[in-house]
Amino acid sequence: MTRTVVVRVLVGLVLVVVLVLALVWIFQRRLIYLADTTPVPAAGAVLPGAEDVRLRTTDGLELGAWFVHPAGPAPKATVLVANGNGGNRAGRAPLAAKLAQAGLAVLVFDYRGYGGNPGDPDEAGLALDVRAAYRFLVEDRRVPPGRLLFYGESLGCAVVAELALEHPPAGLLLRSPFVDLAAVGAGSYPYLPVRLLLRDRFPVRDEVARLRVPTVVVLGGRDSIVPPDQSREVAAAASARLVELPGADHNDPVLADGPELVEAVLSLVPR
């Protein structure tokens, strides 16, 4: 092979690498936010007695949400649920139903770009979305912050952890949290310079280390999406109680709405 051919091959390889990195940079959020954009049904059709409510963000978006009333005369506490990166709020209906049966009021909502909502999701946008949910609860429904629990699922752990720095809740439940988004991405794409490419960071471990609120971390011992060691690391940083379900994978029902999960949420209810 002549020197000219070698140079051409090397230039071609460099161009391919540059092209791949450029595509990852441009389209990375489509890999992160796996939104189900399908409009969800009316709340009452899925959760009897639940309300359809609207949340308004400070950048002018209107988001769909469901407010679920508890069984019993008055809620023990109110739970703000921040979803993971997939699906929409309809997929969290079983969790909301079980929390309501346990005497908790629940707000489940969809981020921008999910569940028929306008907008495109990113880290800054999700921070605005969860603040709209928080304002709805404390301003419109007059929920005392001392009776408000934050529940984060996977990516939602980052969303509520960041919110808790500004508005500390009575308790924080983190289900399958990761250290930060780059740590998860590096495991999925080991041959890419993930930390250099990522636009959205979601530094869960660093944020919970600054919090001083009662925290429980729930994880699956066989989680194939968020490595269990990352969830344990977050728990240590937060000085959190750890609830580990040894045989559970990331999307197993026991981690979505199982009895251990519900009991972990109830353990955070203020006495």
From TrEMBL:
InterPro entries: AB_hydrolase_fold (IPR029058), Hydrolase_4 (IPR022742)
Keyword DNA damage in annotation: no
UniProt keyword Cell inner membrane, yes or no: no
Originating organism: Amycolatopsis mongoliensis
Domain (Serine aminopeptidase S33) ranges: 74-183
Designated name of the protein: Alpha/beta fold hydrolase
Transmembrane annotation, as ranges: 6-27
Keywords, comma-separated and alphabetical: Hydrolase, Membrane, Transmembrane, Transmembrane helix
Annotated Gene3D superfamilies: alpha/beta hydrolase
UniProt-recorded Gene Ontology molecular function terms: hydrolase activity
